[in-house]
Design goal:
This protein is an alpha/beta fold. The chain is built from 9 helices and 11 strands.
């Protein structure tokens, strides 16, 4: 059995809202065992009150960093120093950097140079250099917006004699801003078309999983959930330009999905 990979979760409280904490922790756990959980900020400031409530519930270790200069984010240096210390002293396989600040671009690049898997998390306003410096980037405000919209959807309730639809009222859900994916859907679709042209077999077919990996490597911020799809296969099937096919694998149990451009009639 393959050993679970270990990650260090480092959060810049000055550049990320506490409302994203559930998404951050849930996404982080998907990558592996988060053995280090640290959050940086000036905890003497009243501006951090919303974060203080999250610390114990999410096992986050607060790192105090005083704001020595007004208007300057002093947490950046502390986070970077700790990241480099962890790189050389702790046995971790990757880092999860949570911030919308481009100041961590060089840090992400340096960690990747050392062979570490680097995941970034921030809002859609995050500068492109930091997004591209990470192997994967999760757009928190888009995922948050989608989660809120899912909770607002009507929930079917089964009655004894008939089925009626009851609209569920979300409890204490803040209003969301107009969050949009960093890479628009048109660019994603154009890339998929290009990848199929370059990597498909003689009949135009390509493994769906291989295509998905290539799209992820092209756009670190790519996540099909950003565009309203639970899975990459569902996203491909929704495009009229593509067609899919399922074949039996060598063991005859699992299914292999292939995709190609739809032939014009």
């Amino acid at each position: 059995m393959e050993e679970e990979k270990r990650y260090a979760l480092l959060i810049d409280a000055d550049n990320v809202s506490s409302k994203y904490i559930d998404i951050v922790t849930k996404e982080a756990q998907l990558f592996g065992n988060v053995t280090i959980r640290r959050i940086y900020g000036d905890w003497t400031s009243n501006l951090k009150n919303s974060w203080k409530e999250c610390l114990l519930n999410n096992a986050l270790s607060p790192i105090q960093q005083y704001s020595y200069t007004t208007g300057k984010n002093s947490s950046d240096a502390a986070l970077i120093i700790d990241a480099m210390d962890i790189l050389y002293t702790d046995n971790v396989d990757g880092f999860i950097l949570v911030s919308s600040d481009s100041d961590f671009t060089r840090l992400a690049m340096r960690l990747r140079e050392s062979g570490k898997h680097v995941v970034g998390m921030g809002e859609s306003k995050t500068p492109t250099p930091f997004v591209r410096a990470c192997e994967q980037f999760k757009t928190l405000d888009v995922l948050y917006k989608n989660a809120v919209e899912q909770k607002k959807k009507p929930v079917p309730k089964v009655a004894k004699k008939k089925i009626r639809v009851v609209t569920s009222e979300p409890e204490n859900i803040p209003e969301t801003e107009q969050a949009e994916p960093i890479t628009n859907l048109r660019a994603i679709k154009a890339t998929i078309l290009s990848l199929l042209d370059e990597n498909s077999d003689e009949d135009g077919w390509m493994y769906l999983s291989e295509l998905g990996n290539m799209v992820q490597k092209t756009y670190s911020d790519f996540d099909c959930r950003n565009y309203g799809y639970a899975k990459f296969g569902k996203m491909i099937e929704s495009f009229p330009e593509f067609q899919t096919r399922k074949d039996d694998s060598s063991n005859g149990i699992t299914k292999i999905v292939l995709v190609r451009k739809r032939e014009e009639v």
